[in-house]
From TrEMBL:
Residues 6-124 form the Lipocalin/cytosolic fatty-acid binding domain. Belongs to the calycin superfamily. Fatty-acid binding protein (FABP) family. InterPro entries: Calycin, Fatty_acid-bd, ILBP, Lipocln_cytosolic_FA-bd_dom. This is Lipocalin/cytosolic fatty-acid binding domain-containing protein. SUPFAM superfamilies: Lipocalins.
Amino acid sequence: MVEQFVGTWKLTFSENFGEFLKLLGVPAAQRQMANKQKPIFSLSIDDQGTITMQSLSIFKVTELKFKLDEPFEETTLQNKQATTVVTLENGKLIQNHTWDGGELRVEREILDGKMIVKSIMGNALVVRTYEKEA
């Protein structure tokens, strides 16, 4: 089922991203730059079941390698050490990050050929839409 996420995706729509970054403590100048970015997201799976997710923008390349249901350590965009677990639930790829004093959930799902990404922290919600590149 993860196969539906495989490919390269380009951001086409973003809702509430700046406010979400503010909640995360990102400085105003960085929020403005981040809001102007149209990152490219890619996901691949190797023959051992290792998933690689990459997010590419002008300023940063982020890459995560993991297996479903296996916790791993990562450094968040806020430079915090977090434990992350990625699961597949009802066709959604769910990424749960936890760190001292914080928790973030990212839900990815495919709807009408588009990847809808919801990031949830407390009562804050960001919705970003990606379209698959040919």
